[in-house]
Give the backbone structure.
Amino acid sequence: MSATAETAGASEAGAVAAAAAALSHARPEAILAYAFEHYRRVALSTAFGPEGCALIHMACAIAPPVAVFTVDTGYLFPESVALQERFAERYPITLSVFESDLSLVEQARIHGPRLYERDPDLCCALRKVEPTARALRGIDAWIAGLRRDQGQSRAGLAVLERYAHDDGTPLVKVNPLASWSRADTFRYLLEHDVPYNPLLDEGYPSIGCQPCTAPVSAEGAERAGRWGGRKQECGIHTFLDRKE
Ligand code: SF4
């Protein structure tokens, strides 16, 4: 790396760290406003869970039209697809739907049927992670709806996190809801009359692909119904190496 590139990298790292510290107790709207003000190519990713729905509502009030991307694995619940369409009609968003390069038929031919049962990590890599990596190309700031209290794997979440694209250009991940609870999220949805997935009221506290999502008892952990407890993350929030 040249001395100039090193200096630019250090200065970018310092700016993100300072902003993350300044915004660590800020309201989600202030964190979103920072992202839209400081980055040119900003995109919000969501699977239309309650957090993503809340963020779309907030972001559209701050900087419409909002670029939103989602991944259709081919295994989504019909309720999730219908919700996407509802948001596209109701909100000023440009919705991009990314899919795996492999159709479900091709995947079954190459890897065998019901890959999600035998190797869910590979299935998620093909159907979720690769399309997400493609969606992020050219993006400066990636807004996501993660919360620290969603589980151990998310406990260390910062409001702003530094990553890099393959070519070394910076990518900042923005987590406006990092300090929110599930109750905070639902309070916001109800107070602002934001649409949400009806399955959330039918015992599904976290909704992913149909074969890997089960209802959870009232006492169960939020993500206990995902992958039958065999894994915690699909990989879209862990495939990039975070930079300090
Ligand atoms: Fe495949 Fe299940 Fe991952 Fe969806 S959640 S991509 S069906 S393993």
Notes: DSSP finds eight helices and six strands in the chain. The radius of gyration is 18 Å. The beta strands are 42-45, 66-72, 93-99, 141-143, 160-164, 170-174.
